Amino acid sequence: MITVMVFFSVFLVLLPIFIFFCYEIKFNAVFQLNPEAKAVSKAALGTLLGGTGYFYGQSKISTPPSSNQKLGDNFISYWPAELYTAVPSQPFFPRGFLWDEGFHQLLIWHWDVHISLDIIGHWLDLMNIEGWIPREQILGAEALSKVPAEFVLQYPTDGNPPTLFLVLRDLMCSIKKNQFAATERNEISIFLDQAFIRLEAWFNWFNTTQSGKIASTYFWHGRDNATIRELNPKTLSSGLDDYPRASHPSEDECHLDLRCWM
Ligand SMILES: *[C@@H]1O[C@H](CO)[C@@H](O)[C@H](O)[C@H]1NC(C)=O
Ligand SMILES: *[C@@H]1O[C@H](CO)[C@@H](O)[C@H](O)[C@H]1NC(C)=O
Fold first, then answer.
1. Residue 257, burial from CB neighbour count under 10 angstroms (0-12, 13-18, 19+)
2. Which residues line ligand 2 (CB under 6 A)?
């Protein structure tokens, strides 16, 4: 019995050391950084990977107001869905954010492209028939417990920057530069083939629902034109929440950042 306990204690002490060295070795192989940058980069990547989680539940989707509506009856539930995602912060934002994910995966794919494809695939599976993806994924009780009531509902009229395209572009460039082994190259190509129809639907959703009054202009929908609490109402759907825009939100706006995304 004692030998078993000693063995077990030694194992428990050695395991983190072993994991630490594995992380160190792989980190050095994947990222070539100078010593000052390395310490902070290792911590950042570790937090990002450690914050990656699996969620399951149903988003609440806002429905347009109607006359025969009962109180609290202003949403319908999205289908029960799962999401594998890297979250911005486990204690404060334990939920998936669409545009954050692109930036997370710009880093994670270098570490393990399979994790990235899995995560991007989960997001594309959340697209509805119109080509819209809910921006914040509040799936399950834990995620819901951290969201102020006014941010729970998702609006099918509002977008969020399609940053996942940045990752897919990165992957395609790396394939062209022969940076993947043959099997990985195949897996990525198959993924892109399968994803194409959804990526096209995503583009078309933006091109039709977020277009402006003048040809080839676009604007982020969803700004609050009735608020008396903000001099310059926020544009949460753009990701650049408080970037200064027209003081009086209207359909006459043209947003350069969305035009650039398009
Ligand atoms: C985007 O929308 C415009 C305006 O309706 C249309 O002319 C254009 O063909 C669309 N672009 C694509 C690539 O479908
Ligand atoms: C706000 O926008 C809605 C929808 O476009 C419009 O019906 C309403 O008149 C606008 N309100 C103000 C104060 O501009």
1. middle
2. 225-226
Instruction: Find the ligand nearest to 212 CA.
Output: 1
- Ligand 1 mean position to 124 CA, how many Å? 22
| Contact by Cβ (8 Å): 153, 62 | yes
Please name the residue whose Cα sits nearest to atom 3 of ligand 2: 225
Residue 203 lies in a domain: yes
- Residue of minimum CA distance from atom 6 in ligand 2: 225
Protein residue with its CA nearest to atom 2 in ligand 2: 225
Gap between the Cα atoms of 210 and 221, Å rounded: 7
pTM of this structure: 0.92
Structural domains in the chain (count)? 1
Which structural domain range is residue 132 located in? 41-209
Q: Rg (Cα) of the chain, in Å, rounded?
A: 22
pLDDT digits 0-9 by tens, 27-63: 999 999 999 999 999 999 999 999 999 999 999 999 9
102: in domain: yes
